[in-house]
Design brief:
The chain is mainly alpha-helical. The protein is 74% helix and 0% strand. The chain has a single domain, classed as Ferritin, core subunit, four-helix bundle (Ferritin), CATH 1.20.1260. It has 7 helices and no strands. Belongs to the Dps family.
Length: 179
């Protein structure tokens, strides 16, 4: 692809969607991409968490069902602030479900049945992956001196680590044993 269409696209976005900011345009571009990639992971994790919430079964049904409902609500609460942060600094964000599927690193699970233990372990690992993605975008923001986005991400890292902790504790086979 030649550079001219990319320059024209960037000029069009700046003219119609650009928001004034003191951040460098290259930093806005990189941060907006990082936020959109993170948002794709957040949407995918939300749907997977709801899927497992809806299909939970077994003797700990009530506890796990409520845990996943609480976690899915927390995950969904990240979506609008993530997208709006990209727009506040003059970037763009996701446009479609197709874009979410192309950008996410969270794998779907369409199995007809997943054991409760496997559901929780998979979500634990997915939350760990989201933490890693959030830290990567945080580093971009810190380098660009985008303190507002950094601050939001710090809170989301804390929330994601808490979800990971709860899922980890719920999947331990023996009290006191770490696997």
């Amino acid at each position: 692809m030649s550079k001219a269409p990319l320059d024209a696209k960037a000029a069009h976005i700046k003219e119609y969607l650009g928001t004034p900011t003191d951040l460098k345009s290259a930093d806005v571009h990189d941060i907006a991409i990082g936020l959109a990639d993170t948002l794709a992971d957040v949407f995918a994790l939300y749907i997977k968490t709801k899927n497992f919430h809806w299909h939970m079964s077994g003797r700990h049904f009530r506890d796990y069902h409520l845990l996943l409902d609480e976690q899915s609500n927390q995950i969904f609460a990240m979506t609008d602030p993530l997208a709006e942060r990209a727009r506040k600094i003059g970037g763009t964000t996701l446009h479609s479900v197709g874009e979410i599927s192309r950008r996410t690193q969270i794998a779907d699970n369409d199995a007809l049945y997943v054991t409760p233990e496997d559901m929780l372990a998979e979500l634990r690992d997915d939350n760990l992956a989201l933490t890693k993605r959030l830290r990567k975008v945080h580093a971009l923001c810190a380098e660009a001196n985008d303190v507002a986005t950094s601050s939001l991400i710090e809170n989301w890292i804390d929330e994601t680590e808490r979800r990971t902790w709860f899922l980890f504790e719920s999947t331990r086979p023996v009290f006191g044993k770490n696997d």
